[in-house]
Amino acid sequence: MPNKKLTEAKSARKDEFYTRYHDIEVEVLSYLDYNPDTFRGKTVLLPCDDPEWSNFTKFFAQNFERLGLKKLISTSYAVNSKNYKIKYMPSLFEQDSTLFDVNKTRIRGKKFILEKDITGDGKINHDDIEWQYLEGDGDFRSNEIKQMRDEADIIVTNPPFSLFREFMGWIFEAKKQFLVLSNVNAITYRDFFPYIMKNEVWLGISSFNTGMYFNVPDDFQYAPTYKFEKEIDGNKVNRVSSICWFTNLEHGRRHQPLSLMTLSDNLKFSVHKEIRGQTNYSFYDNYDAIECPYIDSIPSDFNGIMGVPITFLDKYCPEQFEIVGITKTWFGGASKTYPEQIQVDKNGKKSKVTKLNDGATIELHEVPTDTTYYIVNSKMYKQVYARILIRKKQES
Question: For 320-326, what is the mean pLDDT?
């Protein structure tokens, strides 16, 4: 799975993934179209890895004045605190400084500060960065980095996916604004979805439908089945699908309502064969909602609850719909609990499972082909992927 590949890749230097400058630039500058003062007068914290090489540090430093920043703080992890173990190779940036000490660097992280013109050239940019060793290893959970978090107004980074839940809890604890990258499946996390439901977190501006490319080292080994571009602008890259930005920074795209057909028009003219020609939408067997397997198949005139793919959040307009739940066991809301089921895979192999209770199910009236289904008390069911439950906002 792509998200597993990226998580594992982050554990070794030769497989490390770096966010591209272009992707950061496109996302961050788009917020200025909605509010030119989004970052003005703000302190931005980048708790990222290797800020000398980080495109997050490079972008915000180069655009310090354009964004109107008050202060930029970028932190790094100590070499010995990282999962990968290699001989430390100091950068020229470090070697040219009187602060450089290879032994300290192995056990202590570094802090980069940008807030004033120290070169005297009349502008504030990357050349004016000052750096020093941290007291600790730079872990975001340390009191040292927490103090920087508390000083900051906005936190921007690509956190380790394996620590995403803890990292977001760290941000929510301090009630900070943020812009972070993660896998789209984070939407379904028990300790993260409630913030989305309450409209306190939403997706960023960049669509995740095409995935995202990450810079990788020259010796990165592609999987034998890799089919995507391997180089962009002379840099070796790897594509990871289902990557998105999560934020609580306001932007205009999320207030654009979807243009949708009525229920009857969908049944007549939908481009999707699962809907066109049917007499009605399928109702879930264990939730009081209809199944809308595609975003463009959401009926504009249905006032009940609808189950939609989690990718709906990329098009979610809070003035048009409200989110009322998600079809996960931990959330609740299911109208029934199924006893032990017989799972029949697409090859006809049968096994006893209890999977049917974690999600929405649809009763089947004929044996499906080329797909897994379940038998419970002589009835057949299929389970759909995690669905967000939504309802149309009523006009006041």
Answer: 98
